[in-house]
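Q: Could you fold this chain for me?
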Amino acid sequence: MKYIKYSLFLVFILSMSVIDMHTSDVKHQKKQPFTIMAYYVPEKNYKPEELPLNQLTHIIFSFSHVIDNEMKFNNDSNYKKLNQLVAQRKKYPNLKIMIACGGWGSKGFSDMTFNTENRQKFVQSVIDFNKKHQLDGIDIDWEYPCIPAANTKARPEDKENFTLLMKELRIALNTLDRKQTLTFASAGWKSYYKNIEINEVMKYADYMNIMTYDQISGSSPFTGHHTPLGWIKPEHFKDSLVSGFYEEMKIRDANHGVEYETGSAEMIIDYCISQGINSKQIVIGAAFYGKAWKGVSPINNGLYQTNKGAFGTSAYKDIREKYENDKNYKRHWDSVAKSPYLFNATDSIFITYDDTVSVKLKTKYAIKNKLGGIMFWQLGQDVKEKNSLLNAIYKASKN
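A: Sure. Below is the predicted structure, expressed as structure tokens.
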């Protein structure tokens, strides 16, 4: 009888150990410093030794893709570039170097996750890839489960299959000698979270990187903020032309069982926490690029006004060089959105973006609300001077 009891005790202990391997180590997260996580696409003049890696905790090399149910680069030159980045660990031993898989328009996720065989093939390729290149983790950037965005394939089963993918990745990554960080990029709008089993997924992910940018598209009939921190509510633009557009969006999302709200970091983070997500697993997003419209009305300095089309997307380094220093572009601050914008009344051009002030506020917000950290897309779009966006984030995280 004692033997049976002892055997049952051993089974219980072993089962608890297996469960612990399958889930994120929350205790370990609490010991981690504030996370500063950079997505990075190698620049044309690629010199990884000159990157400000001392100001980062994580850098995520972007992107690999799902190709024939395996994680691979679609450009072979990226293998050498990744190895050059990994070589910087000699100088920065505490830096975590990760790989991102997916990105906007990246296909293959729905088919890859659809059955066990395909998932196992993908997971094994991730393990082989990370082991070969001595990486510290992977970021899954599936845009988006159950939504065929940019003509990517999607099916209703994506919701459960995404959970299975994250679970199987977590189990496999835990077998590697080098500790692995598992993250995923999530959308900054509520309806996304109806298409994933968020509480199940967060059992396996270390962090959820919320893309609190691209909150408005270049095809929008009205100007607005694409990466606001502050919670923008209907009363903030009830007297503007955009109020009617807002009502249309509310009706559209209501038909999908979701309450529509203008996108902002404060709104979506509040929502995620209300769904039971641990704040320490949430990473806020900043944008190192801006969006612009042309033919914009001068009313309200161009904010929430009609336009005549997109004027393009610019890296922050180009905004700094071409627009911030141009006297025709006036910088304005929206105290509600806690976000800057530029408006050229002469040429009728409106630019929404993050600057050193707004990324500092996002960093302070993340610390105050006990979030896991801040991430941004992407490092190669920052300026090289001392007063860079990253430097503003880094300084804010230390004060």
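A (continued): The radius of gyration is 22 Å.
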